[in-house]
User: Which sequence fits this backbone?
């Protein structure tokens, strides 16, 4: 494992979203590690995440070496009480869906996804379908990658959560056009009919209700 090289940060350009995009490639290999602490995911999450990462431009992965798939039961007492920012609000790590860990003392940056919180509320049959599964996973993965880009490359002087969300939308849209190009006309139609926004809201509320129910039982 090596930290981000200065060369990978030397050449950048500003895009239409107001974030700076790296133009020089770097080693894109990112290891996906599972550490659930006894919790068993309903799908092969490692394979699902490994399917998303190669679709991302390699310069955006510069300096990132690991995505750790964890679960809240695997956290020790101190980490469960630790708080982190997620989507504009501060939450306990045990309730978060993801967390970005920047490079520290020679160790490269890494992303942690809490699989139980990430997948709760979604039926297994939905999680086994590539398109909705990708949307669910990358909504958090790309947000945390946005934090990585903000920290290591873009250096935007604005609210970090706003920057991470802009990167999530930008990278998610680019991957959708690359992987699901044949669905672009359909999505454009649904967006015009505002059906897509309604479906996202229904999924969001269902997942939030499931998380509240899960916490009440624990």
Assistant:
């Amino acid at each position: 494992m090596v930290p981000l090289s200065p060369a990978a940060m030397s050449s950048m350009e500003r895009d239409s979203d107001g974030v700076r995009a790296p133009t020089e490639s770097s080693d894109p290999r990112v290891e996906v590690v599972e550490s659930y602490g006894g919790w068993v995911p309903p799908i092969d999450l490692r394979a699902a995440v490994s399917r998303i990462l190669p679709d991302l431009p390699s310069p955006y992965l510069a300096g990132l070496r690991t995505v750790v798939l964890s679960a809240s039961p695997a956290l020790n007492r101190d980490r469960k009480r630790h708080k982190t920012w997620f989507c504009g609000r501060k939450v306990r790590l045990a309730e978060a869906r993801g967390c970005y860990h920047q490079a520290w003392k020679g160790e490269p940056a890494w992303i942690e996804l809490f699989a139980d919180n990430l997948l709760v509320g979604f039926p297994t049959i939905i999680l086994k379908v590539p398109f909705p599964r990708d949307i669910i996973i990358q909504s958090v993965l790309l947000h945390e990658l946005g934090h990585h880009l903000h920290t290591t490359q873009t250096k935007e002087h604005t609210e970090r959560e706003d920057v991470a969300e802009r990167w999530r939308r930008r990278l998610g849209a680019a991957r959708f056009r690359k992987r699901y190009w044949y669905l672009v006309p359909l999505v454009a139609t649904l967006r015009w009919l505002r059906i897509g926004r309604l479906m996202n809201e229904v999924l969001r509320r269902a997942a939030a209700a499931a998380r509240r129910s899960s916490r009440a039982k624990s």
Q: What stands out?
A: Residues 1-20, 22-27 have pLDDT under 50 and may be disordered. The beta strands are 12-14, 20-22, 31-34, 64-70, 83-86, 89-92, 98-101, 109-114. The radius of gyration is 17 Å. Residues 60 and 149 are 7 Å apart (CA to CA).
